[in-house]
Design a protein that fits this description.
Elements lengths: L4 H4 L4 H11 L14 E3 L17 E7 L2 E6 L2 E5 L7 E2 L8 E8 L5 E7 L8 E7 L6 E6 L11 E7 L5 E9 L2 E9 L7 E2 L9 E3 L5 E5 L7 E2 L6 E5 L7 E3 L11 E9 L5 E8 L7 E8 L7 E6 L2 E6 L4 E6 L6 E5 L2 E3 L12 E2 L3 E2 L5 E6 L16 E6 L7 E2 L14 E5 L2 E2 L11 H7 L7 E3 L3 E7 L5 E5 L2 E5 L6 E5 L7 E9 L2 E2 L3 E6 L5 E7 L9 E2 L4 E7 L4 E6 L2 E6 L5 E5 L7 E9 L2 E2 L3 E5 L1
Parallel strand pairs: 34-41, 43-50
Antiparallel strand pairs: 1-9, 2-3, 3-4, 4-5, 6-7, 7-8, 8-9, 10-11, 11-12, 12-13, 12-16, 14-15, 15-17, 17-18, 19-20, 20-21, 21-22, 23-24, 24-25, 25-26, 27-29, 28-29, 29-30, 30-31, 32-33, 32-35, 35-38, 36-37, 36-39, 39-40, 39-41, 42-44, 44-47, 45-46, 45-48, 48-49, 48-50
Length: 612
């Protein structure tokens, strides 16, 4: 029943659910025949909905710098300017279909496979659409497995073209634990196809010409039967896929470990290629190692680099392999170039607890990635929130990203800013947050005095929808504040703000928050009162140890401070002017230690401690 798993990976959730019933009927369904090609251009009267159902998935591919396609639901879009503008190019007869593999060679030539629910057949109809004018007109044909002597349960798994005329299509069959793959080829742009001899694997594949191509597969061509693919062998063809030869790839790292499987392959010419692999360095296959392999002599020799990770997926640039890595102790994605970590900055407008899907690069600089947002139901508000997915672009190798989601897929506006917390006190939550949570209502409606902060001291505001440019209002007094993460603002209150209770709210280009009452105290003198243990009940820490967490309490702390352990200085922040939480440096020498704090206001008194 797993016959269409790879094909389904590009479908939306509704399509997958609908196919559950169809899968029950596939084994007893009849074969179907190939139809004649017919011209099919876009319907001028066809109008596409501005909003697609929320279960639709975003899928995309960068074809060349700034140019690529994206699908949302049953609609296909194209951009010429890296997402600044999108044009809908959906074939008119595909609007009720579900997308399978899609391939664009350039801005003009593209091929789209779809499957359609049919009422008069037990099997979905497989269509191939092709365009030579960037989607202005489409040619379509129904692909019938019986024309290629295939079982009726075969589905397209991948499409690849080396030029506008020569292309290949892998068809996959799988039932329970049995599988098989077949390769079809075309020499007329997809109008007619022929079945090639037995295929050594199911891909991925890469062709640099009508004759030369590479394929990831098994050690030998196997008949359909029990067992899954090995994907541990690299094959090459020099006659368009009619005959394949094995390319020996020696163990790239420790000779005691062999490659478990190849993940992807790319060649730019006959000599220069890249290969991504995974191997296991433990006998129970629990410790994966991911390997980047480069060749400059057609595969005779390989250069390698490797790293260990829980999971990783590769993408090929011009000369480097980029990896999206998932670690053992975090849900966050990290990026690597070969064996070097890439630090990246996410754009304002994505949920910080979301995850970055594996970026796909077309060279060493340009790539696209799908970002999956995650919403926090407690803080959700009607009509607000993030789109389930965003399309991101990078032009500096993954260091920075920008949002380029097609408008039809951006179902939710950027959230209006919301002020929810001052220091550690909840000051506002949307009405939906209180449903079934009476303790939140008691917290908000309590008789506690408003949160307070000293003039000239730090204040931290928490919420959502903050931008790099925000205005914080204390009644009619404004302060310009930047947010680095979209959820917090940490800044100094004007020193000349008079004591009193102020109505505080935040405003930016997306709106303004509900106001919160904040009491401003007079400016405080810098004073270090005590050093407390970092563990409850926080007793005075007369004896401290390197690495210990300690609390410095007092007054007059600023956002930026320096904590001194004798003559050793450590930078530290304070979020409320009364506390600094810091770890004792591991390099502090044992013995008596004088601790004090300095900042722009001056220097505090000394609190003695003993380092053990």
């Amino acid at each position: 029943m797993a016959l269409a798993l790879r094909f389904l990976s590009g479908m939306n959730m509704r399509a997958a659910r609908h196919l559950r019933f169809l899968l029950l009927l596939l084994l007893c369904a009849p074969c179907y025949c190939q139809s004649e090609s017919v011209s099919d251009g876009p319907d001028p009267a066809l109008s596409f909905p501005a909003v697609t159902p929320p279960h639709a998935n975003l899928n995309s591919k960068l074809v060349s710098p700034g140019k690529g396609w994206a699908t949302w639901g049953e609609h296909l879009f194209w951009t010429e300017n890296n997402g600044r503008a999108w044009k809908e190019i959906t074939p008119s007869k595909a609007t009720s279909d579900h997308f399978g593999p899609i391939f664009f060679l350039d801005r003009s030539h593209g091929w789209v496979t779809t499957w359609e629910d049919t009422e008069d057949s037990k099997l979905p109809a497989i269509r191939l659409f092709s365009t030579r004018d960037g989607g202005k007109t489409w040619r379509n044909m129904v692909l019938r497995t019986s024309a290629f002597q295939l079982e009726s349960e075969y589905f397209p798994r991948a499409v690849f073209f080396s030029d506008p005329r020569h292309g290949w299509m892998i068809w996959h069959w799988a039932v329970m634990h049995s599988y098989a793959d077949t390769l079809l080829a075309t020499a007329d742009g997809g109008r007619t196809w022929k079945k090639l001899p037995d295929l050594p694997g199911g891909g991925p594949m890469d062709f640099i010409s009508a004759l030369d191509g590479w394929m990831i597969g098994d050690p030998e061509v196997r008949e359909p039967g029990i067992g899954g693919p090995y994907d541990d062998t690299l094959w090459v063809t020099h006659n368009g896929g009619v005959h394949w030869e094995e390319v020996p790839v020696t163990a790239p790292t420790d000779s005691s470990h062999n490659v478990s499987r190849f993940l992807n392959v790319k060649f730019t010419n006959q000599r220069d290629g890249m290969l991504a692999a995974e191997e296991f360095v433990s006998s129970d296959d629990t410790l994966p190692r991911f390997v980047s392999l480069l060749t400059h002599d057609g595969g005779d020799t390989w250069q390698s680099s490797q790293f260990d990770a829980l999971s990783a997926s590769p993408s090929f640039g011009d000369t480097h392999i980029r990896w999206s890595v998932y670690g053992h102790n975090t849900d966050k994605t990290s990026l690597r170039e070969d064996d070097m970590v890439i630090s990246y900055i996410l754009p304002t407008g994505v949920a910080l607890d979301g995850d970055l899907g594996g970026p796909e690069f077309i060279d060493d600089s340009n790539g696209w990635a799908i970002y999956n947002n995650k919403n926090v139901p407690l803080f959700s508000s009607p009509g607000r929130g993030f789109a389930p997915q965003e399309l991101l672009t990078t032009s500096d190798g993954g260091k920075t990203f920008q949002i380029i989601t097609p408008p039809a897929a951006a179902r939710y506006p950027f959230p209006q800013p919301e002020l929810r917390v001052v220091h550690d006190r909840i000051v506002w939550l949307p009405p939906s947050a209180y449903r079934g949570k009476p303790w939140l209502s008691r917290l908000k409606n309590s008789s506690y005095p408003p949160p307070w902060a000293p003039a000239g001291g730090p204040i931290q505001l928490g919420g959502r929808g903050f931008l790099p440019e925000n205005t914080v209002w204390f009644d009619s007094r404004e302060v310009q504040v930047a947010s680095k993460d979209g959820e917090t603002l940490l800044f100094l209150i004007p020193a000349d703000l008079r004591p009193g209770i102020y109505s505080v709210y935040i405003e930016n280009e997306h709106g303004k928050t509900e106001p919160a009452k904040v009491q401003i105290y007079p400016q405080q003198v810098l004073h270090l009162t005590s050093v407390l243990s970092g563990n409850p009940p926080y007793p005075p820490a007369k004896n401290i140890h390197p690495g210990d967490l300690i609390w410095l309490t007092g007054s007059g702390f600023l956002v930026e401070n320096t904590v001194w352990f004798g003559d050793q200085a450590v930078a530290a922040q304070s979020k409320d002017g009364t506390r600094i939480i810091i770890n004792v440096p591991s390099s502090v020498a044992p013995g008596s230690c004088e601790i004090h704090v300095s900042n722009a206001s001056g220097q505090s008194a000394i609190v003695p401690a003993v380092v053990e």
